[in-house]
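tool=predict chain=A
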Amino acid sequence: MRMMIKPDLKEAVEQLKKAVSTKEFIALVCLCEADYVGRARSFLENGERLLIIKEDTSFLIHRPRGLEPVNWQPPPNYVGVTVKGDHIVLTVKRVRKPEKVVVRIHKVRSIFSGRLEDKGGFQMYLSEKEISEILRMHPELVEEGFRVTSAEAREKTGVVDIVGVDANNRRTIVEIKKDRAGLEAVRQLTRYAGGIGQGVRIVLLAPGVTEEAERMLRRNRMEFRRISMLDLTKILVRERSLEKSGIKKYL
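tool=predict ok
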């Protein structure tokens, strides 16, 4: 790992080229301007910003304020470093798409490059509303052939998370629990059942269920379906990543 404070142009170029060639993590604080050319066109005037190139060639430009980067390129990218007169030209070009960002760096305040160790897992704790959102996009996670007809539907006995029909076109009520379901969850379902009528399937969807709750479900002819919070998290992260990468944001 290497960190330099206020390097001159030659030092900065040498470190950048070496780090790019070995695909190291790079964090660069500099005075720069940037051109984006792709599905649209943008120009970012001169200012001090943080440039980040990750080991997978993800690229981000952050301004001093705000959560979102002013510009970014998802991987994979071709990254080139050259010198033109009194400034560095950093070109980040998408490998599979006609998009590129050309950054002209006029002054470097600091540059860090190196390998970062990160073997830690990541857990996202989903809300029941987020789980409902995923299931509306992927109803097959309830069961094959299931179709969602409405969400947060108001029935006579309360608001139901998801209403749909199964592969046999049978009306199905789905109640979602983000934690292991107990007796109170089943009692909630029995209250729903009292106002729904005959012939409707009632399904409890949760990461797990207590033995007492499962016995009560069977007695009331209701069903339990197990969901994997890890799988749901991966799906949500992927969906949001696709949504984000499909829309370029400019501040």
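The longest strand covers residues 100-114. The two ends are 32 Å apart (CA to CA).
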